[in-house]
Amino acid sequence: MNPERRFVFDTNVLVSAFLFRKGIPRAAFDLALSLGIILRSGETLDELWDVLVRPKFDRFLPLSDRITLLRGFEQISHPATVTSQLALCRDPKDDKSLNLALDAKAECITTGDKDLLVLADSFPVPIFTPAQFLAEKQP
Questions:
Q1: Alpha carbon 14 to chain centroid distance?
Q2: Sheet holding 78-79, edge to edge
Q3: For 60-96, how does the pLDDT look when each residue is reduced to its tens digit (9 = 90+)?
Q4: Residue 32 CB: number of other CB atoms within 10 A?
């Protein structure tokens, strides 16, 4: 792990990585952990907790297991202070990932969210799908 390499993973990718251990989002997550650190802000962590404890995910993993995963993520991810308040995304709830990536000097954002992906050509931090992340970062 190289702390100089800093990555932001959007909530949708983290949820998929936690619930489906053999998928592309999980492979991207594992690769990021092997290469550097995964960043979080208070806002992104709150959203992850809010989403992952929803009853609709009970069919994939019991709530107690999801809480264990969330607590583990809190331990392995690195908190970052966010002061930027950019409002660039067509879904304002997604701006938190942009602000985190910018302020924490992330190497990239990994997301499956179309509202973030449409900004890939104009945002100063690269924005990748999990598959693109693997293609770009895999040694």
A1: 6
A2: 78-79, 37-40, 6-9, 108-110, 127-128
A3: 999 999 999 999 999 999 999 999 888 777 777 889 9
A4: 27
CB contact burial 44-77 (16+ within 10 A = b; e otherwise)? bbebbbeebeeeebeeeeeeeebeebbeebeeeb
Return the structure tokens found at 51. 């989403």
> Alpha-carbon distance 26 to 119, whole Å?
23
Kindly report, residue by residue over 108-123, the tens digit of the pLDDT.
999 999 999 999 999 9
Structural domains of the chain sorted by starting position, each given as residue range(s) with its CATH number in brackets: 6-137 (3.40.50.1010)
DSSP code at position 58 = T
Q: Whose CA is closest to 124, among 90, 89, 98?
A: 98
Q: Name the phi and psi angles at 15, rounded to 5.
A: -60, -45
Q: In terms of pTM, does the model score above 0.85?
A: yes
**Which residue type, as a one-letter code, is found at position 132?**
Q
